[in-house]
Structures are given as C-alpha cells and as structure tokens.
Amino acid sequence: MSESKITKGDLVDAVYKSTDVEKQIIQKIIDSFLLHTRESLETGATIELRGFGTFEARLRKGRSEARNPKTGEKLSVEPHYVAAFRAGQLLKEKLWNLKKEDEK
User: Fold this and answer.
1) What is the count of structural domains for the chain?
2) Coiled-coil stretches, from where to where (predicted)?
3) For 51-80, how does the pLDDT look when each residue is reduced to its tens digit (9 = 90+)?
4) Does one domain contain both 1 and 12?
5) What is the dihedral of CA 96, 97, 101, 102, to 10 degrees?
C-alpha cells in the first residue's frame, strides 16, 4: 500500500483532469461539500454516502483516570463526541483485496 497522502488540492486536480469544469468552481464545490459535512456532524446528523460510507458523531465515554501519553500526567476525560466513519460494503470489499507492498 502506498503511504502517499492525498490533499484537497490533489482532489481538485483529479476532478479538473476528468471534467471540463474550471478549477475555481471545483474548489468551491469541494469546500462547500466539506463545510456542509462538518456542519451536519456538528448538529448530530449522520451523513450517508451510498457506495462509499457513513459519517457520524459518536459519543465516547469518559474516564475518571487517564494518562497523558506525552507527559505521563494523570487526568480525567469527560464524555465527548468524535467524528466516526464506517466504510460502505463496496469500499470494504475493495480494501479487503488491497495488496501490501511486500506482496506485489
């Protein structure tokens, strides 16, 4: 598996190359999509993208005793929400058959 990182700019370039839409318009669309996705999660909504996966705000339970891994300091953690992603069936199948670098 490649350890490369895909940035938002890379996504804009990829869409630009596969369509005849201006880069500025693609950038606005992607920014708008991400903004609406974030705002929806902030309100507790679940975002389902068929064939890809589901984003949701998931409650993580707190701990009365936790440890800061950097400093070793003991502290307590309140229950809080985190963004969670569940891959859809098609994505799961594609990733399941992904080969590791040393298997190629």
Assistant:
1) 2
2) none
3) 899 999 999 998 888 888 999 899 888 999
4) yes
5) 100
